[in-house]
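Why does residue order matter? Because the sequence determines the fold. Keep that principle in mind as you read this record.
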Amino acid sequence: MIFASTTFLFLFLPSAILALLFTPPRFRSAILLFFSLIFYAYGEIRYGLIMIFSIALDYTCGIMIESSKKEMNRKLWLLTSMVGNLGLLFWFKYSGYLARLINQALDLSLPIPQILLPLGISFFTFQTMSYSIDVYRKEVKAERNLVDFGAYVTMFPQLIAGPIVRYSDIAVELKAKVSLWNRLDHGFNLFVLGLGSKVLLANALAAAIAPIEALALENTSKLLWMIQTLYFGFQLYFDFAGYSLMAIGLGYMLGFTFPANFNFPYISSSVSEFFRRWHITLGDWFKSYLYIPLGGSQVPLKKVVFNLLVVWFITGLWHGADTQFVVWGLWLGLWVILEKIGLSKLKLPLWFKHTLTLVIIFISWSIFNAPSLTEWTQRFIHLDWMSSASLEGVMLRNGLGLLIISMILSGPWIKTWFEKLPSWSKQGFYTLILILSIASLIHGSLNPFLYFRF
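Structure:
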């Protein structure tokens, strides 16, 4: 089940909200766990069994880490959690990729596992690992209430596409059971903005890309590929940021304050700044649980470079089980390293740094969105600049207005202007977005879900 669907909007969400509103606070975690498991198991019941296993594993490990007196035992229980979570992630996401690599390297014919990827597995495994690590570090107390812990792990608003919520982010709210009635308005408005971002912008950009994606490789050109990448970069932003905002709004309605996940990344003037603004919770996760434990920046420069390469290699691999994602991560990591060792200190005009950052980022999106690294290389080397059918002008002309709107809405200017409007005007705007979004979904417009690959 996805947020941008009539099933979620008209059936699941009203049922969950009404049940939570009229349930005594002491039963709220149980109701949230129940609806979250239904949400996750929708369409494939075994996904729910995987989630139950993850809950049982990290609930047990957390308690044992906290209650063990010997440091060795604490480390063994932490290792159990890490192996269990990473084992799940590896089997479902990377076993097929590893088999292909072995076959290519050793000229073997190992069977390639055909495993359906559980929805959001990259998100919830990182979330549960952060809990076990934080308990080990004594930064949080182990949760003894199994229902509360299950509600935290499975919480449907942020389960499939983030933000990655640490237990410490919501531990107090999980127990406080605040009144939900006075949170509905603000939370729903945030949800509507995210829904509009996904349905009205990301889906429209996907429709603009569709004619290019339908072309055979020999009928495309470098310029068409650049146009496709430009559309895709904004589609990905409005899709991902939209889902994150929907999650934050839903969480607020349910009594939880999730951390922000995006902060207008396309206004950045460096790659490092871009990823401080893009998927913020993932960047914070890697910083807290990988980069700093490796030594962070408090080590000699050679070790800093190594640490950054490790972080960006794993960041790429986290996004997808394919070599192209590793290359994507290393490409970005290279620029972060160059900025770290001196590029950011050069006295360059702000417009130049901003332009260079966007060029680097959109080159990365061309790698990220390619069907494979081999096809990306073929496009880069063999495609002519213009297609024989002269489709470039048509594609630009047909999508130019949408592209300009996307550029404007990807910056903070509209938000600043919108916040100055009277409340009645804002509410009318929210209502219009909701009506247009629902109309688009009912009409059956193109509605891709980018996070199946994660």
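Residues 185-448 form one domain.
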